[in-house]
Amino acid sequence: MKHSPFTLVEVVVAMAILVVVGTLIGTASAMFYRAYARSTEITEQMKEYIAIDQVMDQCVRNTIPFQWREKETNKIRYVFQGDPDMVIFSALRRSHANDKGSLIFVRLRLVDDKLAAEYSSYPLLPWELEENDDPERYTREILTGNVQSVKFLYAERDSDGNIEFLDEWIEDDHNGIPLAIQIEIEWKNGHKERWLRRTAGSAANASYGNRQDQSGLDRSTGRGGIR
Fold first, then answer.
1. Rounded distance, CA 79 to CA 64, Å?
2. Which DSSP category does 209 fall into?
3. Residues 6 or more apart whose Cβ sits within 8 Å of residue 145
4. For 169-184, how does the pLDDT look when each residue is reduced to its tens digit (9 = 90+)?
5. What is the β-pairing status of strands 180-187 and 163-166?
6. Which of 1, 55, 95, 147 lies 20 to 30 Å from 115 when distance is taken between CA atoms?
7. What's the predicted TM-score (pTM) here?
8. pLDDT number for residue 172
9. Under a CB-based contact definition with an 8 Å cutoff, are residues 178 and 156 in contact?
10. Average pLDDT of span 78-106
11. In sequence order, what are the residues at sequence separation of 6 or more whose Cβ sits closer than 8 angstroms to the Cβ of residue 121?
């Protein structure tokens, strides 16, 4: 008569140990996966923040007044359009040997659910883009996706010397371009971030940085602060 090398108790204990070990391995694997997924999400988010920071620092902060003559009316207008959900502006850039000039023309807007930055070496004339928005006229860069809404604000100095922010920049009501431009992005997950940068402007508003203490604007160098 043959006898089993293991008793029933030993088999039950072994199975219990295997269940505990399996549970620990499963729990550890799930925690590792969640941590990895979260780390990947944060990394991608930081890449998007860096991309937006670069546009704000290299383009918005170098925005200057640039004028162009409109063919139909023969009126000289600024190459600038400030809407609540879109902005077109002219900016100085570093010029290299093969560049077509030291100016770059930029449009920031929401395309589907993505924040896009569109660049051109030739003027992006707002009054022409309204009728003929040819994608071959510019290069598009996607800064971030899954965006619920984008909101722009435009800073100007009122008659008392205080800074106020406007939802829209109407050329006939102002002289030149805004003192600063702010963008607020809301993603579909409900998260919001703001970026605010001074424009290069002109001599007419060169005192903006010197008087910001009086205007109450934040002097922080982080996102949302004035640089």
1. 10
2. T
3. 48, 113, 114, 115
4. 998 888 789 999 999 9
5. unpaired
6. 95
7. 0.72
8. 82
9. yes
10. 86
11. 99, 100, 101, 103, 104, 105
Mean pLDDT of the chain: 82
Strands (E), 41-84: 67-69, 76-78, 81-82
Measured in residues, the chain has a length of 227
Q: What is the spatial distance between Cα 65 and Cα 59, in angstroms, rounded to a whole number?
A: 13
Whether 60 shows a pLDDT value over 80: the answer reads yes
How many CB atoms lie under 10 A from the CB of residue 68?
Answer: 16
Rounded to 5 degrees, φ, ψ at 140 are -105, 135
Q: CA-based diameter of the chain, in Å?
A: 112
Question: pLDDT for 175-215, tens place per residue?
Answer: 789 999 999 999 999 999 999 999 997 545 444 444 444 34
Q: Rounded distance, CA 21 to CA 208, Å?
A: 66
Left, alpha or beta for 91 (phi > 0: left; psi -120 to 50: alpha)? beta
**How far is 135 from 180, CA to CA, in rounded Å?**
28
**Any residues with CB less than 8 A from the CB of 175 and at least 6 apart, and which?**
204
Which stretches within 84-207 are classed as H helix? 126-129
Reading the block at residue 127, the tokens are: 């009054």
The reported pLDDT for the residue numbered 3 is 57
Query: Cβ-count burial of 192 within 10 angstroms (0-12 exposed, 13-18 middle, 19+ buried)?
Result: exposed
Tokens coding 44: 């991608």
80 C-beta neighbours (distance < 10 Å), count:
23
- CA–CA separation, 60 vs 14, rounded Å? 67
